[in-house]
């Protein structure tokens, strides 16, 4: 008879950023028709005394990687108790889990000759036929022993083979080389009598060969081992139904979400489910659409006294980029328009405060205290879900021109759906009105990080846009979208006004000027950095100490240029920025308000090349992390050489791999089992001033996971933190000594139709306010980093934001 239930595995998370890669890989294992069910639990979720009665129901336990050392009780948590008390339970330790296993039985964990983070090594295993080692060889069954196999390593500590007690047997080693000073380093161990195994390398990494085979072998060995009933007898526990056991502290993808949409009523009070329609007016252009002219005419110039206040422009300014098809823009809108501002509290008593304003100047203030348990993410989740419920499921209603309702169309434009469009025809883009704005870096305090520094601007700022202009750059079509409680018979007054603005005098011909910021052009020696050259270089040294101690694999260290004084025209600045540094995820956001009791003067000019996360209508999640940057050459030959240097750079490839594995982990928390994959690994993309190494990670959103769950579980972007994310963010807080604010956060939209979203990573960005301008720049620090080169890199990244077009060369 076959097994009547799945093999249950408990995965103990040591606060690593690769744990859910193990979760995904283990969950798709099948051994002789038996599937695997995996539960994940933080190492400090519950004490072992509470865990013990239910943990015995598991067929196997995996101890994850993580920061720190097994000598620190806080770093390994309940792992030590598991190893001490569950001697008959099959256990596999990975990296820190492997070191914890060795330390528990008396071996020493020491610093490796050279830290190894995100790099590959060749590993060989023992081929002895000895029975004891034969059990260990079963762990490596089907994996090449002659010549070895390639593995990815993330560690600066290693188990000292010379200190192994008799009860621990070595199983695998690296090949000796110059970096290891001729030594072969221990990569795997097993206990002589107990089913306990450890591997120093990361079988779950995208670049480790045969990692899935090793995990399948471990599950197969666990299924052959002592049954749960026998283990119960050994521990004196009463019999129970293991398949129904509930382990305290087990994590879920929607962990922490409160099923409450209290703020939603403030936006859609009185609107029934299915009561909102998307009305669309589509115009076709004979020529390539000038998005800048559209914004100036319809959102800026068309606003009368409003100017650019409360406007947005999600700008795919790099039209040569394959993903830059659509741009979206709008301003203070109609009946359903809202302005949603969130400011974090201290998190000990006050979680945060949300202000919701409307077009009439009205404002409601919601305060969320610790005992309420409602975070920013809960508020956004509730608003997005409630909005989606109120949307008609019949698709867009296309407006046709008739009886001269549209008036005289601008020259070169025609009504795309003249003569009638099929009711409910799908729009070719995902953003169909909804939320547009930013989430600042400090919002990490409500998704695993801490509240260390207070930002000078709201921690999140969104508009609920009920009137949106969408531009299809490929098709040459512009769409005017408007939400209403019924299908419009003809174009609305807003649509007519926008069309009239297109035919009137345009601001697009007005020269934006030089557009440079009043900043010291010698950025390397500039005193306008938050931390001057010497301080930043010193922080890089501190980063390396953390890396050597095993606290992190990679630390994204950043700095800020602070330019005093109010800048007169941020829009003109952005017009030049999008010319000199066109990027697919650019944005212009102006949160200036005419209300005297609100903060004024916050304008964001962003030319980001990096996608944080996207969710399509088909439920596909996509991240495009960037790690690896080099300045473009002044000639074609220099430029080609620079591109090849980046592509072959071992340091940059290691940085990119670490973040790819981190993003696989983040998507693995919210994706269907087995769906996370990497269609592009370490590709090189070229922009106006730099070449960058970019990878693509995708997954299929799991059932029961909301769009906001997906954003929360991946925030902040791993490319702006490093890994492991939680511990590394703590290090960043200590070193940078100030908030990052909007920089390192995300800008984008969440559609009201079905929660689809597209969010960037806020880099290459200038943030304007009444007190001055802030430009952030940073880079990933690894053990291979050269301090001067790292400072040069942030200068390269900042230059495009403060220089004038004539001050830089072109390839």
Q: Any descriptors?
A:
Rossmann fold; Anthranilate synthase; 3 domains; 13-stranded mixed beta sheet; twelve-stranded antiparallel beta sheet; 29% strand
Fold blueprint:
Blueprint: E1 7-13, H1 19-27, E2 30-31, E3 34-42, H2 48-55, E4 60-63, H3 73-76, H4 79-85, E5 91-94, H5 96-104, E6 109-125, H6 131-139, E7 149-159, E8 168-174, E9 186-191, E10 196-199, H7 211-224, H8 228-235, E11 250-251, H9 265-268, E12 277-285, H10 291-300, E13 311-315, E14 326-330, E15 338-344, E16 350-357, E17 363-369, H11 376-389, E18 397-398, E19 413-415, E20 434-439, E21 460-465, E22 467-472, E23 477-484, H12 493-503, H13 533-548, E24 554-564, H14 570-580, E25 585-590, E26 603-608, E27 611-615, E28 620-624, E29 626-631, H15 636-648, H16 650-668, E30 677-686, E31 690-700, H17 707-714, E32 722-723, H18 725-736, E33 746-751, E34 757-760, E35 765-769, E36 772-781, H19 787-802
Parallel strand pairs: 1-3, 1-4, 4-5, 5-10, 12-18
Antiparallel strand pairs: 2-3, 3-11, 6-7, 6-8, 8-9, 9-10, 12-19, 12-23, 13-14, 13-25, 14-22, 15-16, 15-21, 16-17, 20-21, 20-33, 22-23, 24-32, 24-36, 25-26, 26-35, 27-28, 27-34, 28-31, 29-31, 30-31, 33-34, 35-36
The total of beta strands comes to 36
Could you name the CATH class of the largest domain? Alpha Beta
How would you describe the shape?
Answer: globular
Which class best fits the helix and strand makeup? alpha+beta
Quaternary organisation of the protein chains = single chain
Largest sheet, in brief, is: 13 strands, mixed
Helical content stands at: 10-25%
The number of helical elements comes to: 19
Task: Extract low-pLDDT stretches.
Answer: 226-230, 232-237, 239-245, 302-306, 594-599, 804-811
Compute the number of structural domains: 3
Mean of all residue-level pLDDT scores: 86
End-to-end separation in angstroms reads 70 Å
Q: How large a portion of the residues is in β-strands, by DSSP E?
A: 25-35%
CATH superfamily assignment of the largest domain? Answer: Anthranilate synthase
The CATH architecture of the largest domain comes to 4-Layer Sandwich
| Gyration radius, rounded | 28 Å
Q: What fold name goes in the CATH topology slot of the largest domain?
A: Anthranilate synthase
């Amino acid at each position: 008879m076959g097994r009547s239930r799945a093999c249950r595995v408990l995965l103990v998370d040591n606060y690593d950023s690769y744990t859910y890669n193990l979760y995904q890989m283990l969950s798709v294992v099948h051994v002789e028709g038996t599937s695997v069910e995996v539960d994940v639990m933080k190492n400090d979720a519950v004490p072992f005394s509470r865990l013990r009665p239910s943990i015995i129901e598991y067929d196997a336990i995996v101890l994850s990687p993580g920061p720190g050392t097994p000598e620190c009780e806080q770093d390994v948590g309940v792992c030590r108790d598991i190893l001490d008390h569950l001697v008959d339970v099959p256990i596999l330790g990975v990296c820190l889990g492997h070191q914890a296993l060795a330390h528990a039985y008396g071996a020493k964990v020491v610093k490796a000759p050279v830290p190894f983070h995100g790099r590959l090594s060749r590993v060989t295993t023992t081929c002895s036929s000895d029975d004891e080692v034969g059990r260990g060889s079963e762990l490596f069954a089907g994996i090449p022993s002659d010549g070895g196999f390639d593995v990815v390593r993330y560690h600066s500590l290693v188990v000292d083979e010379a200190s192994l007690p008799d009860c621990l047997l070595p199983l695998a080693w690296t090949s000796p080389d110059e970096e290891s000073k001729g030594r072969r380093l221990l990569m795997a161990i097993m206990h002589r009598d107990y089913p306990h195994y450890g591997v120093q390398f990361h079988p779950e990494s995208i670049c480790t060969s045969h990692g899935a085979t090793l995990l399948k072998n471990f599950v197969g060995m666990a299924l052959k081992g002592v049954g749960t009933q026998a283990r119960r007898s050994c521990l004196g526990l009463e019999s129970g139904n293991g398949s129904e056991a509930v382990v305290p502290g087990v994590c879920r993808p929607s962990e922490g979400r409160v099923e409450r949409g209290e703020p939603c009523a403030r936006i859609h009070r009185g609107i029934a489910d299915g009561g909102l329609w998307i009305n669309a007016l589509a115009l076709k252009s004979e020529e390539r659409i000038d998005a800048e002219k559209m914004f100036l005419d319809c959102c800026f110039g068309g606003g009368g006294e409003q100017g650019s206040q409360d406007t947005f422009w999600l700008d795919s300014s790099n039209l040569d980029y394959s993903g830059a098809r659509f741009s979206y823009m709008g301003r203070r809108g109609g009946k359903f328009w809202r302005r949603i501002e969130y400011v974090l509290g201290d998190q000990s008593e006050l979680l945060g405060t949300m202000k919701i304003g409307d077009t009439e100047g009205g404002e409601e203030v919601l305060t969320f205290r610790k005992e309420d348990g409602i975070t920013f993410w809960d508020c956004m989740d509730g608003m997005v879900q409630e909005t989606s419920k109120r949307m008609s499921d019949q698709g867009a209603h296309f407006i046709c021109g008739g009886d001269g309702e549209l008036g005289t169309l601008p020259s070169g434009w025609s009504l795309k759906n003249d003569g009638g469009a099929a009711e409910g025809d799908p729009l070719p883009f995902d953003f169909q009105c909804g939320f547009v704005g930013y989430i600042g870096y400090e919002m990490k305090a409500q998704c695993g990080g801490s509240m260390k520094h207070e930002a000078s601007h709201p921690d999140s700022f969104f508009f609920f846009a009920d009137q949106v202009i969408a531009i299809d750059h490929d098709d040459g079509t512009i769409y005017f979208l408007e939400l209403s409680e019924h299908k419009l018979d003809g174009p609305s007054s807003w649509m007519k006004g926008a069309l009239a603005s297109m035919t009137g005098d345009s601001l697009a011909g007005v020269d934006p000027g030089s557009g440079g910021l009043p900043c010291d052009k010698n950025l390397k020696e500039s005193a306008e950095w938050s931390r001057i050259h010497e301080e930043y270089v010193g922080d890089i040294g501190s980063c390396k100490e953390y890396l050597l101690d095993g606290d992190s694999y990679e630390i994204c260290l950043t700095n800020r240029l602070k330019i005093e004084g109010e800048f007169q025209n941020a829009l003109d600045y952005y017009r030049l920025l999008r010319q000199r540094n066109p990027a697919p995820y650019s944005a212009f956001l102006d949160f200036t308000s005419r209300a005297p009791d609100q903060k004024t003067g916050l304008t964001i000019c962003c030319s980001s090349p990096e996608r944080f996360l996207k969710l399509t209508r088909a439920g596909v999640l996509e991240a495009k992390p960037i790690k690896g940057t080099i300045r473009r050459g002044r000639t074609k030959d220099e430029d080609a050489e620079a591109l090849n240097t980046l592509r072959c750079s071992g340091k940059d490839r290691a940085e990119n791999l670490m973040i790819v594995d981190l993003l696989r982990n983040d998507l693995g928390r919210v994706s269907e089992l087995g769906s996370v994959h990497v269609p592009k690994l370490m590709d090189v993309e070229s922009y106006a001033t730099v070449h960058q190494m970019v990878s693509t990670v995708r997954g299929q959103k799991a059932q029961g996971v909301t769009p906001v769950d997906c954003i929360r579980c991946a925030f902040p972007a791993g490319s702006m933190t490093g890994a492991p994310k939680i511990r590394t963010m703590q290090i960043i807080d200590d070193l940078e000594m100030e908030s990052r604010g909007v920089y390192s956060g995300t800008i984008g939209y969440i559609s009201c139709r079905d929660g689809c979203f597209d969010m960037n990573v806020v880099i290459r960005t200038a943030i304007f306010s009444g007190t001055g301008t802030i430009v952030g720049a940073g880079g990933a620090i690894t053990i291979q980093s050269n301090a001067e080169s790292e400072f040069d890199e942030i200068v390269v990244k900042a230059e495009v934001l403060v220089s004038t077009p004539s001050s830089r060369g072109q390839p």
